[in-house]
Amino acid sequence: MLVPEFTKQPYESCFLAADFVNVMDTDVEDIDLANSTITAIDVSGDTDNTVLDIGTKAVESSTKLKVRIMDGTEAKSPYKFTFRIITTQNNKWEKDISMKVEDL
């Protein structure tokens, strides 16, 4: 499976969301925010959650888990963000998104 990827500059800060609409049964389940996680892994495989403003973690439109991303360095790029959700029906799903940091 192809991991979606995007590029941002070190100064930029924005929300990043993973949409689980294609795997969730939206008639009977929602994302359990308290038990869902988002982590960032840098190019060397180390956890680097300094690029996440984890206090902004939220559910949007009942199928998207989102968080504000910020900063990052070219040297640690690309970063892999892993979004893991647990639903109110106890289903578990995971999505990865890759981010390249480049000072253009």
Short description:
This protein is an all-beta fold. 0% of the residues lie in helices and 48% in strands.
Written description of the protein model:
There is one protein chain. This protein is an all-beta fold and 104 residues long. It has one domain: Immunoglobulin-like (Sandwich), CATH 2.60.40.1220. 0% of the residues lie in helices and 48% in strands. It contains no helices and seven strands. Strands 1-7-6-3 form a four-stranded mixed β-sheet, with no helix packed on it. The protein starts with a strand and ends with a strand. 19% of the residues are buried.
**Named CATH topology:** Immunoglobulin-like
Number of strands: 7
Structural class: mainly beta
Mean pLDDT, all residues: 96
Reading the helices and strands in chain order gives EEEEEEE
How many domains make up the coordinates? 1
* Main sheet makeup: 4 strands, mixed
User: In order across it, which strands form the biggest sheet?
Assistant: 1-7-6-3
Give the N-terminus to C-terminus distance in angstroms.
29 Å
Alpha carbon gyration radius: 14 Å
Q: Show unreliable segments.
A: none
Q: Helix amount, in percent?
A: under 10%
**What is the name of the CATH class?**
Mainly Beta
Given the structure, what is the number of helices? Answer: 0
Q: In one word, what is the shape?
A: elongated
Which tags fit this structure?
single chain; 104 residues; mainly beta; Immunoglobulin-like; 4-stranded mixed sheet; 3-stranded antiparallel sheet; elongated
